[in-house]
Amino acid sequence: MNDDSIAIAENFPFKTVSDETAESGLGLLQRPPTIPDYLQDTYWWAYLHPKSLWFFEREWVVNLILWGNMKKLTNAVLDETNFEQGSEVLQVACVYGNFSDRLASHLAISHSKLSIIDVAPIQLRNVKKKLDDHDNVSVHHQDSTDMLFANDSFNHSVVFFLLHEQPEEALRKTIAEAVRVTRPGGKVVFVDYHGPHRSNPMRYLMKPVLTMLEPYALALWRDALTVFLPAEIRQEQISSEFYFGGLYQKVVLQL
Fold it and tell me: What's the rounded mean pLDDT across residues 221-239?
């Protein structure tokens, strides 16, 4: 399949020009988003350096980081995505490993489309290369905290292991944006870290690791993800499941 098999949104600047403006797709001219300071300062080694792709873009590495739970957590998302024919689904941020490949294949069964956003061009180039065999995927250079999509653009949205990488202000904005662009009647599915049970030995191993490498993740240990939801979300719209002794959580919003 040729290099154009995955549609690239017009607002994704493969050729970077410092003062270039890009078409947002909403009839407006917008500058491409810049890399947030928290990503540049805290996670450059994991997402922005070319060698990070070489190391982390291996399924066994991702599975090791998640203590053997990558397949289970991916399945937890797919269990929520038996959508109607022709759905439009948003994935907020790229994911190492085969998550996006499995999600795109799953959606293709119902002739549904997957849009993927990320703020880092290197990640979008990588996901385009990974998903070149899929014709139901488009990628968009956008910031999760300030998306360019109109309200109610998607039937459903998925946020897979992004929130723990964001400071609280950005985390809240990402959640609010995912809700904003998802249509009434749709779902927003979050999968991320969670404070494990006190009886889980992983609690005492992972806390110092996260403190050193992923300090923003501790907000999700301190408070339930539901604490960060927009005020208009009602309790009856929320369902939660926990995995691996509470170390991971899935939170589903029914809008």
Answer: 95
